[in-house]
Design goal:
Order of helices and strands: HHHH
Radius of gyration: 19 Å
CATH topology of one domain: Serine Threonine Protein Phosphatase 5, Tetratricopeptide repeat
CATH architecture of one domain: Alpha Horseshoe
Helix content: over 70%
Strand content: under 5%
Length: about 90
């Protein structure tokens, strides 16, 4: 039985990890656009996209302010006033 060189296995793993990260970044970019109200006419979809971005861990602290504000605005438009108030605090 012949084993493949370890560098081939490592290279394959690196390529797969890079492709996964690229797909995640592209998906995250779409959620950002939706959270901003672009490419969607649904308040529900926009609010859910903001939640996805917030929960993604991609940003933290002040880097999330815009997402909380946008989610608060979408929640207000949907009549989810308790949620909107939480996001504006």
């Amino acid at each position: 039985m012949r084993f493949k060189p370890i560098w081939r296995v490592a290279a394959l793993g690196a390529v797969l990890a890079w492709q996964s990260a690229l797909a995640t970044a592209q998906e995250l970019g779409q959620f950002i656009r939706w959270c901003e109200g672009k490419d969607t006419d649904s308040y529900e979809k926009a609010a859910d996209a903001c939640t996805t971005f917030i929960d993604s861990g991609y940003r933290s602290g002040t880097g999330l302010v815009w997402a909380f504000v946008n989610r608060g605005l979408w929640s207000d438009n949907l009549g989810r006033y308790d949620r909107a108030i939480q996001d504006f605090r």
